[in-house]
Amino acid sequence: MQTRDEIFATLRDAMVELFELDAERVTLTANLYQDLEIDSIDAVDLIDHIKRQTGKKIAAEEFKSVRSVGDVVEAVHRLVNPDN
User: In sequence order, what are the beta bridge partners of 68?
Assistant: First the structure.
């Protein structure tokens, strides 16, 4: 079971590695598309990375509704903790 803080730390590290972002830019309130300049192809890479880390695939429909890093953390938290 992963906490939101652990998910955020893992996600931040992944975004720094995958998209060459400064860690300081990756905050819970950062908008993926406007603040971090992540495009649709980057989003697919991020979904794939989440799948490799969790062993579970996040639904593309669910990912369409995310706008901020915090939204991604919540989506992953629901994925890895389905009973919460």
Answer: 31
Q: Length of the chain in residues, anyone? A: 84
Query: What domains are defined for the chain?
Result: 4-80 (1.10.1200.10)
Question: In whole angstroms, what is the distance from residue 20 CA to residue 55 CA?
Answer: 24
**What are the tokens at 48?**
């794939």
Give pLDDT tens digits for 61-83: 777 788 999 999 998 998 888 77
Neighbours of 23 (CB within 10 A): 11
Q: Residue 54 pairs with which residues in a beta bridge?
A: none
Task: Give the C-alpha separation, 82 to 24, whole Å.
Answer: 30
Taking the model in full, what pTM does it have? 0.87
